[in-house]
Design goal:
Layout lengths: L1 E2 L4 E4 L3 E3 L3 E3 L2 E4 L13 H46 L12 E3 L2 E8 L3 E14 L4 E15 L9 E10 L2 H14 L20 E2 L2 E2 L17 H4 L6 H6 L3 H11 L10 H6 L2
Antiparallel strand pairs: 1-2, 2-5, 3-4, 6-7, 7-8, 8-9, 9-10, 11-12
Helix pairs in contact: 1-5
Length: about 280
């Protein structure tokens, strides 16, 4: 709230979130204003003054709406630049360069990965205590393997295939099965950046643009050498800014064009009510 001579101005949540949202909501209250100078003027004069004041409000409103329109255009440019920066700042995905190696956080797991796929596997040995030998002896082997997309985007590393805890009663069979799974998917790990399946293209795009170094099955490589300024096409360019009249300029012009009627000496309060 802001206290003025004849009124209080309330501003509810005026807010600017660049590139997204603009909020302006104001109201005023004249409950404590002195109307003694106005009530002596007569209803007819006050009606004329009221119309003039409303016209002044309308002009101010139109200036605010013009400013909001200008903000929309500029905010669109900001948002496009933000989207381009998000694309450019997407980190390179981590991978093992198509080499099988222990998982950094779990030595029981093996993993292999490149820029598009990642696969992990493990064989867990189950033991049982033998009361005769008083030793733990293996009784089963459980094979788990999983194949995922290796997307640089959080939440987009989709599970493609896998097997959870497939049980074997001899280790050789478990190893043979797992070796077969590795061989079955080895063609996915022949290149550092193999083609992306068309149905999973969105996992490697940011705001509709394919990330650098990736290709999609059946498509020619896409060049992504546009600058952030080019990506923001449609926003307000520097030239457009120079040519477009400023909001402050509109306000000054509106004030200079306002016709100020000559007021009698006894109607000083009328001038106070003008915007």
């Amino acid at each position: 709230m802001e206290e003025n001579k004849d009124y209080r101005a309330y501003r509810y949540g005026d807010h600017l979130e660049p590139g997204y949202e603009l909020k302006i909501e104001h109201s005023i209250s004249c409950e404590d204003g002195d109307i003694s100078g106005l009530i002596t003027m007569g209803a007819e004069s006050l009606e004329a003054m009221r119309k003039g004041s409303i016209n002044g409000e309308q002009k101010a409103y139109e200036i605010v709406m013009a400013a909001a329109k200008q903000w929309e255009q500029q905010a669109a440019a900001t948002q496009m630049i933000n989207r381009a920066l998000e694309y450019l700042r997407t980190p390179e995905v981590k991978h093992t360069a198509n080499m099988w190696q222990p998982h950094p956080n779990n030595n029981d797991l093996e993993e292999i990965s490149n820029r598009v796929y990642k696969m992990s596997c493990r064989i867990r040995e189950d033991t049982k205590y033998d009361t005769e030998t008083k030793q733990s002896v293996p009784v089963a082997w459980y094979v788990t393997w999983d194949l995922y997309l290796n997307s640089p985007k959080d939440g987009y590393s989709i599970h493609l295939a896998g097997q959870d805890k497939k049980r074997y009663t001899d280790k050789a069979s478990a190893v043979k099965y797992l070796d077969g799974r590795k061989k079955a998917y080895s063609h996915l790990f022949a290149e550092i950046s193999p083609p992306i399946p068309k149905e999973h293209e969105n996992c490697f795009t940011v705001h509709g643009a394919l990330l650098p170094g990736y290709t999609v099955e059946g498509q020619e490589p896409i060049k992504t050498d546009r600058t952030a300024a080019e990506v923001s096409e449609g926003g307000i360019s520097m030239l457009e800014k120079a040519e477009k009249p400023s909001v402050l300029g509109k306000l000054a012009a509106a004030k200079s064009n306002e016709k100020t009627p000559a007021a009698p000496a006894a109607t000083k309060k009328k001038e106070d009510m003008q915007i």
